[in-house]
Structures are given as structure tokens and as C-alpha cells.
Design goal:
Radius of gyration of chain A: 24 Å
CATH topology of the largest domain in chain A: Immunoglobulin-like
Number of helices of chain A: 2
Structural class of chain A: mainly beta
Number of strands of chain A: 17
Number of helices of chain B: 17
CATH architecture of the largest domain in chain A: Sandwich
Number of strands of chain B: 0
Oligomer: heterodimer
CATH class of the largest domain in chain A: Mainly Beta
CATH architecture of chain B: Up-down Bundle
Helix content of chain B: 55-70%
Strand content of chain A: 25-35%
Largest interface: A-B, 61 and 59 residues
Number of domains of chain B: 1
Number of domains of chain A: 2
Helix content of chain A: 10-25%
Structural class of chain B: mainly alpha
Chain lengths: 321, 510
């Protein structure tokens, strides 16, 4: 046996193992690559720092995704700001949400239950909290899922206009696994009408700061006070709510208007981790230019802190007299 | 501090010298400063992750600053300068030339490094070490991110200047009696590394400029709203930084080729397979960059091509491992500290390589990508293989540099603690990744398995930290008061084994 023989044998074994690994990987990946033609499309939008999901029938969900067991789903994953990564660890599903691109991925959920959805690409201040929940519901035989009414935080979206992409204007969801189509990030989530459940009036675009005058007065019960979320509130250090502190008389209705370019909430409690967060009042997520009303007639007089669940560094104080 | 026994010189004479051993010494000292600074940040990171929730840091932003500076410091201020330092010290001796080809350029290349340290640590950016746009261009707070860009730009320039100097020294200044194929494998490793630096770094240098103008808002290379594409940056970045992995590891392999035959008291098993493996990896290493990017939405063809390219890079690493083991086989091995670190390095190199094969198999990549698996895998290479070999080489060079012997008992304790710590922390991090823990998070779900594994990892990390305090103490104390070493055979390997380097060659002559 020559000096080099054992080395050649060793290299041969290594190469054989590598070829086997490569071939197996190719086989599996090839089977996983193409979504079944009858799959339902769910659009996944990642933005700092939450996930929103849009079903084919127009239903929109935020930080919760309800799917049916045994139905093939095709996910179209987009981002509106920085790169996120849509990850369901229990199903080994992972795909980056890249601004300017539509990435696709598909899966058939075979085990009913509640699962974690998380972000795996570092995306800034609240990266670690960018989690959502996946609910796989047992399939009752009807494969055409219409999860319209059963999911609690559903936001009914009027028209399907949110998925229009800019160049060419073709509807996303039409074709294949190629990922290269460019979308205009700004257009993805902005629906013209406010999409909140409790939306009352879509009136006053109060400029930041000018609402202060009307807020401090002791106006009569039933009248309306304006709380504005000014532009730039999503950046730590900028004013989060205006006016802050806000003083109202019990019974007044607070009209919250989101004048910022990011989604926000007004939720009672000092931070999302509090046990009583959202118990007293909660607007749930308001999209940019959206409004919501908070009725103070059920709130006892006192001083309350509130925050934004999307950006927990945004806090404000509400005093009910 | 007196650093040299035979001819004590004041510190300033070493600082302003252009002699290759002095520059080499400065490189080594600077890189060790970075090693301890960057390692200190890791200790804080492990303390934060000891229990779920946010305790030590103010929030994710501060945490991100720590892991960004930790990564950048250890990659670019510890690994690269140490490789350059050891090369500076030994290459002119090995190729039998009086100095590096351009001594003043050599000094300039070194003196770019301290300003980079100040920029990096003064800014404390939070972009993560790979600074993906649009986060790094649109959202990352300045001036930290800008300082990070300038620091990296200067460091790239410094390593390119160093690499040109090495290439010219080895190819043109080599003694006429010394053919290339008789040159030591450490010189080969340095030559191959230098050529890779010259090819790889300019790409990243270009993308740093684009990143900077994007941050200024005058261009939109990586901004989809201005017609750019964030994925373009990732291609440019990984085209530099996947070869950079080999740029980090090849000097370590060259050092193992110095240490393992010496302490095995046996000639190298196969010189040719070592040279061939070095050259092959330098070429193939450029064909696998996008395996870092499977999850950005690549087509099936792209994924297949880069999987094959990555798998093709494995056999040459396996050839090195085989060469090391075959050299040790049947040798009268003396397990002094440098040998212990080398053998530990081989073991972990093998484990990390096996993990790498798992990473590149396409379906498994989606399981492990951006999880703690990747953190464990990458640290197993960088800490487990490269740093172990580098530390072993510091012990190996210690008698040559200082003329004194280090405390051998402390060095062995250092090895045992470090090795156990590495096995604990990075082994457990692989499993954490399979449990779905994402990397770069300050907080994780309070699930008992995650908590236990993170605590094991933290204890492992602190064991490494403790062992490096022993190392520092050993280095400083032994450099000042250690017993004088035998310049011919400091490791007492006995007759028939010559200590490699000519002791007299250290002394400056200009």
C-alpha cells in the first residue's frame, strides 16, 4: 500500500458522503419547491414589528393566523420596511420578507394546534417581540375555508385593493415561485378607508399639537375630544401622543387619529406585558390615517397610562375626571 | 514592560520601528487587545441570556450594539490582525529575506488598525456585523453606523496592503535557493490567504461605499423605492465574506502545520496534499457564497448551484484533517500547550465541518437558518478551530518572542477550561437552534428547555472567560518573570528535533 493510498480512500469516502447528501437534498427540495395548483394564497406582510395576514377572501388578521388542517396554503411574503424573516419553527418554514420582492412558500398543516410565528432576521428595536400565533383548526370536511366570522380579531377589509403592485399593475398571486417582482412598499397596507372595527368618523386630520386646546377644557358628556398620534411617533424619543397628558371628563368620547405613517394602537396599561394591558380600553391596530373612538363612559375617574402595542416605548397618560 | 530578554529595548523603539518582527509584535498585541475586549462583550451577552426577559441591557437596541461590536471586533480586529502578525513575524524568516518587501507600507498597514478600533468602539453600531440594508441604510441610528462603515473600509484597505506585501515578499523576495515547493506550509497558507484577500475584499469595499451613499440618501442601490435591491448587497457582502471564512481559517491551518509535526516529532505526512488542498480551497471558496442566502427567495437552480459549490469545498478541508491525523499517527507526541490547542482545534474543525454539510443541504438550511444553530456552527469554526489554533500558536511563539517560557501548568488549565467551555456553549447552541430560538434576540420564550440550555451555554461562556483571564495573567507574568527558554529547544522535545526559527533573526537591524 503506497503512501498516498489511505488518503485517496479517505477522500473517496468523503466525496461519496457529500454526493449522497447533495442528492438527497436535491430530491427533497425539488419536491418542496412547487406549490400544489389548488393551494390557497395567504399574503404575509412583515413590518416593524408585527405580522399581518391577508386571506384570499379578503379577511385580514394581525399577529394571528387561522388556517385549516390539511389544506395546501401558499404564502406570499412581503415587507414594507426592512428585511424580516417569516418563520414557523414547528413546521420548519422559513422565508425572508424582503422589501421590493414577493417571496413564496407553501405548506400543508397536518396537526391542529397553536404554534409560534417569529421573525428570524434582525429588524431593529423590537425584533425579539415580533411574534405571532398560528392556529391550525381541525378540518371539518369542507376544504374551501371561509374563516370570516370565527376569528376574533378579524378586520374586515372592504375591497381587495391592498394587493395591487405598482409596475405593470398585475395582481400578486398569479404566478410561480420566482421571486423577483418589484412592489412598491408603501402601497401594500394602506387601505383608503380606515379598517378598524370601532371606526366612527373619518373626519379631522388634526395636525400634531393643535389638539391641545380642546382637550384641556371640561366639555360636556357625550362630546368628542381628539387624541392625535403625530408623524414620527414610531421613532423613540419623538412625541408619541398629542396632547399628552390628556384630560377628559367621564362620558366624553376620545377620537384617536393615527397621523403617522406606521400602524399604532392606544391600549391601556404601561406596557404590553402588563396583566391588565388592554382591559380598560384598546383601539387595536389603527393603520396610517385610521381613526378609532374610545368611550370613557365606562371608565372610572382616575389617571391611567396607555401605550402602543406595536411600539411599547410610546406611552401616554389619560386622566378621567 | 520588557518584552525581549536578550536585548531589552524601550517600548517606543518597538512602536516606531518598521522591522518585521516589531510590526508583527504590534499586530499580535493589538489583536490580543481586541480579543479580550470582544470577549468581554460576549460575557455580558451570555449574562443577559441567562434567564428570559430583559435584565442587564436597556432593550434590544443596546443588545444589538453589543453583539454587533462583539462580532466585528473579533472577526476584523482579532482574526485578521493576528494572522497578519504571525505572518509578519515568520514569513521573512521562512523565505530567508531580511524584512518584508516594503517595510514602511507594512507599518502603515498596521497603523490603520488602532484608528479603526476607536471608530468601531466609539460608534458602537447596532447594524449587526453583516449590516443588511434597508435596516442599515434607512433605520440604523447614526453616526454609529457611519463610523462602522468607515472603520470597515479602513480595515479592508489595511488588509489589502498587508496582503500585497506578503504576496510580493513570498513570490519575489524569497531566497533563490528556496523553491516554492520547499517553502513551509505556513508560508503557503499566508500566500494563498493574501491572494484571496486581494480578490475578495474589493467587492465589499465597493458595497461599503454604496451603503454609505445610500445612508446619505443620494443613491438607492439597495433601496427598492429608488429602484435598488437589498439582495444585491447580500450578494456583494457574501462574495467577500464567504471567502473571508477561508481567509480566517487558512492561517490557522498553516499554524497547525507548523505545530503538529514538531510536537509529533515526525515529518509531515504529505506536503503535497497540504499545498494542493490550500490552492483548491482558494479557488472553490469563491463559488459558494450564496449558501448564506437560501432563504432570501432564491430560485431552485441558484440554490442547487450554491449547494454543490459548498459541498465541493469540503474535501479539501477533509484533506487537511487527514494530513494532521496521519502526521500524528505513530508519532511520539508531546502534549505541550500548543499541541493540545492544535488537537482540540482539529476535533472541533471536524465537528464544525460536519455541521456545515448539514447547513448547506437545501431543506435543512431552512430549519437552521438565522437560528442559534448558525451561531453555534459559526463559533465552532471561529472560536473552536481558528482561535484555538491561534492561541496555541501564541504559546508556540512565546519563547521566540520573549526568550522566556510561559507557565506550562496554567497553559494546560487554560486549554481544558476553554475546550470544555466551547463544547458546552456551542454544542448546546446547535440544539437551541433546532428548538427554533432565533439568533440576535435579547429575550426568548420562557420554555424550560430553552432556559436550561441557555444557562448551560452561559456557564460554558463564562468558563472560557475565566480561562482567558488565566491566559492573560500567564502571558504578562511570564513575559516579565518567566524562566529563560532554551533558544534551540524551548519545549524540551529532545535530540533530533530542531526548534524551527532562528532566534537571532528576530533582532532588528535597521
Amino acid at each position: 500500500m503506497g503512501h498516498g493510498t489511505p488518503e485517496w480512500i479517505f477522500i473517496g469516502v468523503v466525496v461519496a458522503i457529500l454526493i449522497w447528501v447533495g442528492a438527497e437534498a436535491w430530491n427533497v427540495e425539488h419536491a418542496l419547491e412547487y406549490a400544489p395548483p389548488n393551494s390557497e394564497t395567504i399574503r404575509v406582510v412583515g413590518q416593524q414589528w408585527f405580522w399581518s395576514f391577508q386571506h384570499a377572501d379578503g379577511t385580514q388578521e394581525i399577529n394571528e393566523l387561522h388556517v385549516k388542517e390539511g389544506v395546501p396554503y401558499r404564502f406570499e411574503i412581503v415587507s414594507t420596511d426592512v428585511i424580516h424573516s417569516f418563520n414557523i419553527p414547528d413546521f420548519a418554514m422559513l422565508m425572508d420578507a424582503v422589501p421590493g420582492r414577493v417571496n413564496t412558500m407553501w405548506n400543508i398543516f397536518d396537526e391542529p394546534g397553536e404554534y409560534l410565528i417569529e421573525c428570524r432576521e434582525y429588524c431593529g428595536l423590537l425584533h425579539q417581540d415580533m411574534r405571532a400565533r398560528l392556529f391550525v383548526e381541525p378540518n371539518t370536511g369542507n376544504t374551501t375555508a371561509t374563516s370570516q366570522s370565527e376569528s376574533e380579531p378579524t378586520i374586515s377589509q372592504g375591497t381587495g385593493t391592498a394587493t395591487v403592485i405598482a409596475p405593470g399593475g398585475s395582481q400578486v398571486g398569479s404566478s410561480g415561485t420566482g421571486t423577483m417582482r418589484v412592489v412598491e412598499p408603501g402601497n401594500l397596507t394602506q387601505s383608503e378607508s380606515s379598517s378598524n372595527v370601532r371606526t366612527g368618523n373619518t373626519s379631522n386630520a388634526t395636525t400634531p399639537g393643535t389638539g391641545a386646546g380642546s382637550a384641556n377644557g371640561t366639555s360636556a358628556a357625550g362630546s368628542s375630544v381628539t387624541l392625535s398620534i403625530p408623524v414620527g411617533a414610531a421613532t423613540p424619543g419623538n412625541p408619541a401622543y398629542s396632547p399628552d397628558p390628556l384630560t377628559v371628563s367621564k362620558g366624553e368620547v376620545i377620537t384617536v387619529s393615527n397621523d403617522d405613517t406606521a400602524p399604532h394602537t392606544v391600549t391601556s396599561g404601561a406596557s404590553p406585558g402588563d396583566a391588565d394591558a388592554g382591559q380598560l380600553f384598546d383601539t387595536s391596530i389603527m393603520m396610517p390615517a385610521g381613526t378609532a373612538d374610545i368611550d370613557t363612559s365606562t371608565i372610572d375617574p382616575g389617571e391611567y397610562t396607555y401605550h402602543c402595542t406595536v411600539h411599547p416605548f410610546m406611552t401616554g397618560t389619560l386622566t378621567v375626571q | 514592560m520588557v518584552l525581549e530578554l536578550k536585548k531589552p529595548r524601550p517600548m517606543w523603539e518597538i512602536i516606531f520601528s518598521t522591522h518585521h518582527t516589531d510590526i508583527g509584535l504590534l499586530y499580535i498585541i493589538a489583536s490580543m487587545v481586541a480579543l479580550f475586549a470582544g470577549g468581554g462583550l460576549a460575557m455580558a451577552i451570555r449574562a443577559e441570556l441567562f434567564i428570559p426577559g430583559v435584565q442587564i441591557f436597556e432593550g434590544q437596541a443596546d443588545f444589538a450594539r453589543f453583539f454587533t461590536v462583539h462580532g466585528t471586533t473579533l472577526l476584523f480586529l482579532w482574526l485578521i490582525p493576528f494572522g497578519a502578525g504571525a505572518g509578519n513575524y515568520l514569513i521573512p524568516i521562512m523565505v530567508r529575506y531580511k524584512d518584508m518587501a516594503w517595510p514602511k507600507l507594512n507599518a502603515v498597514a498596521f497603523w490603520m488598525i488602532p484608528p479603526c478600533m476607536f471608530l468601531l468602539w466609539g460608534g458602537f453600531a447596532d447594524t449587526t456585523w453583516n449590516a443588511y440594508p434597508p435596516y442599515s441604510t434607512l433605520k440604523a441610528p447614526g453616526p454609529a453606523a457611519d463610523m462602522w462603515i468607515v472603520a470597515l473600509k479602513l480595515l479592508g484597505l489595511s488588509s489589502v496592503l498587508g496582503a500585497i506585501n506578503f504576496t510580493v515578499t513570498i513570490l519575489k523576495m524569497k531566497h533563490p535557493d528556496l523553491p516554492l515547493m520547499k517553502m513551509s506550509l505556513f508560508s503557503w497558507a499566508t500566500l494563498v490567504t493574501s491572494l484571496m484577500i486581494i480578490v475578495a475584499i474589493p467587492t465589499f469595499a465597493a458595497s461599503l461605499v454604496m451603503l454609505y451613499t445610500d445612508r446619505l440618501g443620494v443613491s438607492g442601490f439597495f433601496n427598492p423605492e429608488m429602484g435598488g435591491d437589498p439582495i444585491a448587497y447580500q450578494h456583494l457582502f457574501w462574495f467577500t465574506f464567504h471567502p473571508e471564512v477561508y481567509i480566517f481559517v487558512l492561517p490557522a491551518i498553516g499554524m497547525m502545520y507548523e505545530m503538529i509535526p514538531t510536537f509529533s516529532r515526525k515529518p509531515l505526512f504529505s506536503y503535497y496534499s497540504g499545498v494542493i488542498a490550500l490552492i483548491v480551497i482558494a479557488v472553490i471558496g469563491f463559488g459558494s457564497w450564496a449558501h448564506h442566502m437560501f432563504a432570501v427567495g432564491m430560485s431552485f437552480t441558484e440554490k442547487t448551484v450554491f449547494m454543490v459549490g459548498t459541498l465541493a469545498a469540503v474535501p479539501s478541508s477533509a484533506m487537511h484533517v487527514f494530513n494532521f491525523l496521519a502526521t500524528m499517527w505513530g508519532g511520539r507526541i508531546k502534549f505541550a500547550a500548543p499541541m493540545l490547542f492544535s488537537v482540540g482545534g482539529i476535533l472541533l474543525f471536524f465537528s464544525a465541518g460536519a455541521g456545515g454539510v448539514v447547513n448547506t443541504a437545501m431543506p435543512l438550511d431552512f430549519l437552521t437558518h438565522d437560528s442559534y444553530w448558525v451561531v453555534g456552527h459559526m463559533h465552532l469554526f471561529i472560536m473552536g478551530t481558528i482561535t484555538l489554533a491561534f492561541i496555541g500558536f501564541i504559546y508556540y511563539l512565546f519563547p521566540l518572542i520573549t526568550g522566556r517560557m510561559y507557565d506550562q501548568r496554567l497553559a494546560k488549565i487554560h486549554f481544558v477550561l476553554t475546550f470544555v467551555g466551547i463544547a458546552l456553549i456551542f454544542g448546546v447552541q446547535h440544539i437551541l437552534g433546532l428548538y427554533g430560538m432565533p439568533r440576535r434576540v435579547i429575550d426568548y420564550l420562557p420554555i424550560s428547555e430553552l432556559i436550561i440550555m441557555n444557562q448551560i451555554a452561559s456557564f460554558g461562556g463564562w468558563a472560557i472567560g475565566t480561562s482567558f483571564i488565566l491566559f492573560l495573567y500567564n502571558m504578562i507574568k511570564s513575559a516579565m518573570f518567566g524562566k529563560p527558554a532554551d533558544p534551540k529547544d524551548p519545549f524540551e522535545l529532545g535530540k533530533g528535533v530542531e526548534y524551527y526559527y532562528d532566534y537571532a533573526r528576530r533582532d532588528p537591524h535597521h
